[in-house]
Amino acid sequence: MILQHLFHAGPCSRADLARATGLTRVTVSDLVAALLQAGLVEELGQQPRPDNKVGKPATLVGLRTDSFQIVGIDLLDVAAHGAVLDLTGAVVERRGVPEMPTGDAGVRALVALCAELLALATHPVLGIGITSPGVIDEAGTVLQAPNREWYDLPLAEILTAELGVPAQVANDANAAALGEFTFGGATGSGLLTISVGDGVGAGLILDGALLLGQGAVGELGHVTVIDDDVPDAMLGTPERCACGRLGCLETILSVPALRRRIAGLDPRAAEAALAAVGHRLGLVLAPVVSMVNLTEIVLSGPADLLGGPLLDATLSTIRERTLPYVSRDLQLRMTTLGEDGALAGAAVLVLSGRLGVS
User: Fold this and answer.
1) Which spans are transmembrane here (predicted)?
2) pTM of the predicted structure, to 2 decimals
């Protein structure tokens, strides 16, 4: 509780911490002493008393964001992006693998990349955060990630044992939601993040808590959106998805699908094609918005594809198909974290798992 408050509110006195957390001053003093000894917080000098009141000035304490570092890795369908980050999510060093092998060889390559990044750290490493496509449980076991050929793989356990540093592993879209909530300015009262790359994934945060279900919350990419029985003049006939079914959202919203759709079109036709995809995305999201009363939807991916006509059509469709009271305050925007959103999410996995901070 104390670390969480210092992370979000910044330096404050022990008395302020007691008021904010509801803990007694004695308990707060004992906890701050333990955190000082662990090197996680530091004293920052005295704070002048308000209105020149008599008494000893309060001493501020703050989180030492430079005392530890985090290794974060974002596993894509083919490549892997890795970094050493500080506790604020800022990247210190980068490394990557352009083509990651799959199966057991992929695990060995991941261990090697983690080891390389650990060697680059200039401060003690708090933990390792890994984000990956696929269904992943709370223990960091990859239940299924077909593109990586991983099934029932206890990845967090393997990495911790091999590297001697605690590892946290989570679905990439869920981690992106955590990154947006912690570093991207989202409120988290009703937040849906949609990550668009080679596939489409989503993460959902309600009332400040990430929803996991059985590990497959947010699989919007495999909702069927085009059917032979419901022809769509703009989107054409349904395509076969990687999951084996026809007409999944991923077949029209993934980056490769969007690039193919606008290839060779003049600007006006390209805008219309992107707006058609946005309309279909809005049809998928409208029931979700109504069901859980979302307040914010954040898109992550190439802004030239997702921003503009696609984003506008999505929001317009949602508002047309939901009660005005439900969607009147809904915000739909691009991420503020850019390409490092997934790495920021990997950092939050460690902050949450090791310090209880998110």
Assistant:
1) none
2) 0.81
